Amino acid sequence: MSVNAPAIACEGLVRTFAEVEAVRGVSLTVAGGELFALLGPNGAGKTTTLHMLTTVREPTRGTASVLGFDVRREAASVRGVIGMVFQEPALDDRLTARENLQMHAVLYAIPRAETAAAVDRALAWASLEQEATRTVRTFSGGMKRRLELARALMHDPQVLFLDEPTVGLDPQARRHLWESVRSLRREGLTVFMTTHYLEEAEGCDRVAIMDRGEVIALGSPAELKPQVDGAPLGSLEDVFLDLTGRELRDEEATPRARLLAFGKRGGEHTR
Prior knowledge:
It is a single chain. By secondary structure, the chain is α/β, with parallel strands linked by helices. It has one domain (8-265): P-loop containing nucleotide triphosphate hydrolases (Rossmann fold, 3-Layer(aba) Sandwich), CATH 3.40.50.300. The chain is built from 10 helices and 12 strands. The protein has helices at residues 46-53, 75-81, 97-107, 112-125, 141-153, 171-185, 198-201, 221-224, 236-244, 255-266; strands spanning 8-17, 20-30, 35-39, 61-66, 69-70, 82-85, 159-163, 190-194, 206-211, 214-219, 227-228, 231-232. The strands form 3 sheets. It has a 6-stranded mixed beta sheet, sandwiched between helices. The chain has a 4-stranded antiparallel beta sheet with strand order 2-1-4-5, with helices on one face. A two-stranded antiparallel sheet has the order 11-12. Strand 1 (8-17) and strand 2 form a beta hairpin. The two termini are 38 Å apart.
């Protein structure tokens, strides 16, 4: 990647599911070392966008790259340079914390001679050294999130993707997670996250707001807020609600719900 190349770039990114267009031509770039937040109501297309950038789903149309690697043609290279914390827990709760990390080391081809030290560093980073031999099913939500974040960082990724990483965490666990992320950014890590907590987005370098599959606003939190005599007027939450509306969004607003409804109408099986 050249010095001035973005860490993440996408142009005209589209993803459809049957008749449902979940993402509609998203274009954006994220600079190296930037903390970037993607906001939007349920069903806006945030997670689908993140899944395309991390090669979990292939774009229907458009292009995307991470550190210069194309998400379609160079998916293995993309996976090698990113870390990922999914919205839903992705740990094997039948295994211990140490075993989960050991399995990750194998998947990311960490040399066997270096695995024990890498696992120990990850446990220490997550403050879980004393819990290493406990099965993950006995962990609290905060402990699981710390373990997932430590696992995502074991192979020294250059870009970290976080999909609503603090959902369900108590205030202490949320604060600890963001203090950890801030310490990583000081080392130059690029962070791309989705969140519903607008106070978390306030601390980001830039924010994109999505609605109905499209990016409808992009800029720093200060840039997105209305200005009066150079001073921000209102909060990022006010901007979000003004742009996306104040009405409640029921489950029919989500792409998955619309896709399931289409499958029932068409008599086809949908997953």
